[in-house]
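Lecture 7 notes: from sequence to structure.

We start with a single chain of 118 residues. Read the sequence below before looking at the structure.
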Amino acid sequence: QVQPVESGGGLVQAGGSLRLSCAASGRTFSSSNMGWFRQAPGKGRELVASIRWSGTITYYADSVKGRFAISRDNAKNTVYLQMTSLKPEDTAVYYCNTNPPPSVERYWGQGTQVTVSS
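Now the structure, written as C-alpha cells:
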C-alpha cells in the first residue's frame, strides 16, 4: 500500500500559485494511478486531479480545469500538483493517494493546508 506525505501548502493571495508535492513510499507506487484530493471545512473529500501510473492520462475536476496540473516522477516516487490562478474556494486540506483511494483511514497522510485569501 502506498503511504503518502504531502507538502507545499501555505497561505497565498487570490490569483497566486503553489506547487504541492507528495512523496509516496511503497513498492506499488510506480504501478499505481494517483490522485490529489481536497477537503474544505464542513465538506467531504473530493477528487481534484488524477494521473495514470504511466503519466499518460490525466483527469481534472471541472472546478480546477485549466488552472491545476498534475504530474509525477516515478523515479522519485513523487506526485506534484501545480496550482495557478488560485481562488478562495480552493482553500482546503489537500491530500494525495492512490485512485481509487483506500477505504482504510490509516493509509491517508496528514495532508497539506492551502489557504487562499481574497
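The mean pLDDT is 95. Keep this in mind for problem set 3.
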